[in-house]
Amino acid sequence: MTQQFAERATNVAPTGARNADLSDLIRILEDGQRRKLDVIAPASALRMREGNVHVEGVESLITEDGVTDVDGIYRPTALADEGISEKLRIPLAYLRRMRAENVPLLDENVNAWLGERPERRFMLRAFRGENGPGMPPAEGVARALLSDSYKLMDNLDMLLAALDGVQKSGHPTRITGCDLTDRRMYVRVESEAVAVQARSLLRGYRSPFDGRSGDELPMISAGFVITNSEVGDGAYTITPRAVIQVCRNGLTETKDVMRAVHYGGRQDQGVVSWSGQTQRKTLELITSKTTDAVRTFLSQDYVEAKVHEMEAAAGKTLDEPTKTIEHVTKTLSIGNEAKDMILAHFVRGGQMMAGGVMQAVTSTAQTLTDADQAAALEALAVPALMAAAAHG
């Protein structure tokens, strides 16, 4: 399986994976857990200097494992900059321009707004940097600036709880790919034991990757995708996902999503650490919800009903496919680069009907290197089908 890993900075936990195996994802998440630092800090303890977040005057955490130093320098990711923009009400485009063109002005703006309400508290999610013995602390990474009531539901904990729920459901499944970005984790699960024929949906379609025919392999497998964000970019979710076997295109049904939000009560100042009881209750709930969701989404009746809904629209012939795709991409706010790729995939797929537009959207999603963009495009497959059928 193709794997791509990206380290964000020297001595900082890697956060990127695309189409990785489960074992590789867990390795990255374990490394991140080892280096993570979550702290509730007042605005008075935060300063921007040379474009980096400086934490000053926050009490260290002393445990049986040693002392966790909080004070230090943390380089913001693009997502952390988004959090700074939101929390301090600095327009994001302006913040990005200052970072690119005038860092001293960025420092001045951020510090001025932090100073307006020095008692206001934030949660800073970060990775600690690491250096060798006797060396000064390395620069870390500021991953996100969040509300002090943000509830920590880390990717590794959520993943293990979800996999426990999958096992308890009793369904035979396999993990077909994992993605990890600065924003979200995605784990795709499939059950070929739950598959339905979709001859009407796949009639005349051929894979744009190898030319195999949907008429010869008209099967759709049941599945779902587990997602979570550690940095405020979405809830923990389980979303049903259908997999078209002839081309491995996947499409998600977002209206049936199961979610758990990252919101809790205000937390004490200092380093954040879950109590064992709180963590256990949260993860037990995630396991239970996952088990229920899997039993629903991997039901033969559920998959057949969804296929039937799609087939009702997929057979609509398109008189002017190019104009239809133009309409669909504009309606769904799909950019020009992706629109051109969808049109090319539509032509190669050979299915000159509304269903061909859906297939082109999902096959295009497979080719994207950005996992967040790919997931967003998969979620638009069914809306694209309906928009294409309505436009004709």
TrEMBL record:
Domain of life: Bacteria
Annotated protein name in UniProt: DUF932 domain-containing protein
Organism: Streptomyces monticola
